[in-house]
Amino acid sequence: MKKASYEQPLCSLPTKALLIVLSGPSGAGKDALLARMKESGYPLEYITTVTTRAQRPGEQDNVDYHFTSAEKFQEMVKNNELLEWANVYGNWYGVPKKPVKQALEQGKDTIVKVDTQGVATIKKILPEAIFILVVPPSKEELVTRLKERRTESPPDLSLRMKAVGAEIKQLPLFDYIVVNRQDKIDTAISDVKAIITAEKCRVRAREIIL
Q: Which residues pair with 61 in a beta bridge?
């Protein structure tokens, strides 16, 4: 199937490269949303997260995540190779700094996926980034999604559900919220695209300097 062709949303005003930070509770559908946008050919630089967690069935190394060892991850931290990093549910996750910096310098709008700890970190160093929180329509649907994907043990599932309340309390860190409803991911994607279009039309353009 031929990929859809998109043009970067532009207004008549001069625009600068955007850094979009996507976050949300485990099970909110962040990975599926990004995968669908990427498959459609929507013009963004999609940054792949580094993680020490085990690779799940169907995931591809260097596509879904850069899977690495805890030792290698700590070496990246020591060498200042990560924009942000955090321990989430017992595993390390981090955003590689170099591809983000290169994309922004080349004028490419860039999107990264982080947990709420990562949002707080990036907010301090790059306050002009765009922060989007992706959530399901209800806590009940979130529980259903986590159970259906069958990637967490009962203790892990309980831990993730306990974290949801704390994650939602971080709402003031975000600029926008997108509700990702079951079987309506295209609506959520349209909302993200609308946010990007609106940001491109700002009178005062955001300026991201990394």
A: 65
Q: Tens of pLDDT along 88-106?
A: 888 999 999 999 999 999 9
Q: What's the pLDDT score for residue 170? A: 80
> What is the DSSP code (8-state) at residue 172?
G
Nearest to 126 by CA among 17, 2, 45: 17
Residue 163: the pLDDT is 66
Cα three-residue angle 205-133-59, rounded to 5 degrees = 110
Residues 6+ away with beta carbon under 8 Å from 179: 135, 136, 137, 188, 191
Render pLDDT for 26-84 as a digit per residue (tens, 0 to 9). 788 899 999 999 999 999 999 999 999 999 888 999 999 999 999 999 999 999 999 99
* Domain range 19-200, CATH architecture: 3-Layer(aba) Sandwich (3.40)
Describe the strand order of the beta sheet including 91-96 as a list of residue ranges. Answer: 66-67, 50-51, 91-96, 82-88
Answer whether 200's CB lies under 8 Å from 109's CB. no
Single-letter residue type at 153: S
Sequence spans of domains, the chain: 19-200
Give the other-Cβ count within 10 Å of 28's Cβ.
24
pTM: 0.84
Place of tokens 């983000």: 100
CA atoms within 13 A on the CB side of 42: 22
Residue with tokens 């799940």: 56
